[in-house]
Amino acid sequence: MSIPTLQNNAERAQHTVLLLWLLIPILLLFSTSNFLLLPGKAVNENEVLSWLTLATALALLGVTLAAVIYFFSWFRRAYANLQRAGCRTEHSNGWAIGAWFVPILNLFRPYSIMREIWDDTHRLAYGTEPPRPLLGWWWASFLVMSIMSRVSNSLSDQDKTAQQLENAAIGDAIHSLFVVVFILLTIAIIKRVAVAEEQLLLRQQVNSIGELAPEPVDLGATEEEHYY
Questions:
Q1: With 0-12 CB in 10 A as exposed, 13-18 as middle and 19+ as buried, what is 139?
Q2: Which positions ≥6 away from 63 have C-beta within 8 Å?
Q3: How many CB atoms lie within 10 A of CB 223?
């Protein structure tokens, strides 16, 4: 039985994992330098530290944006590949991105889509579906991270007394720790799925042996490949 043509997702997975690893030290450095700038700290008036905090904040913004874009591109293609392989997915592949931005739905639908990617990709590659505890911890960390983000923002919006600034910094530090946990679990999931996707592509190549050679085509990325 031949396997339908799938889009290679390995490069997107690699770039996403690389950016997520890069995000961790930048996030921790920003959280630390931000805490050291609090009133009453010995280095709170250090000009070099102030510039370091600003530079780290800009780097954090840029790397976070890049990591999110690459994650969404990987996530969407992984979901679209299930449809290319003949799986009946619960949602259209557009929801692989849209589900993260719709209130209420973003509390459960991204997990539902990731569960489909996890189950079906492994089933197609190995004929079996592995347990999902990793997915459960991943989504639990995301929900806690989201709650801590709201708490941290609420503390930051209070009057700027020394104690309130310190409380906000502590809330931000706790939030950052949950972000790191979420990143590490995301990396683990992407790597597991990427291995299964690689196995699927290998099977596709093996099944194509012996078929008539295709006509020469332009090997450049098509509009669809850029989109999915």
A1: buried
A2: 19, 22, 23, 26
A3: 7
- Pick the closest to residue 198 from 188, 186, 209, 206 (CA basis): 206
Confidence of residue 45 (pLDDT cuts 50, 70, 90): low
Percent residues over pLDDT 70 in the chain: 81
Helices (H), the chain: 10-36, 47-84, 95-98, 109-126, 133-156, 162-208, 223-227
Rounded distance, CA 5 to CA 203, Å? 11
Rounded-to-integer distance, Cα 97 and Cα 226, Å: 15
Name residue, tokens 């700027």.
160
Q: How far apart are CA 129 and CA 107, in angstroms?
A: 24
d(Cα 123, Cα 96) in Å, to the nearest integer?
20
Q: What tokens does 93 get? A: 């592949």
Count the residues in the chain.
228
Q: How far is CA 109 from CA 105, 184, 189, in A?
A: 6, 21, 17
State residue 160's pLDDT score: 67
Model confidence, pTM: 0.84
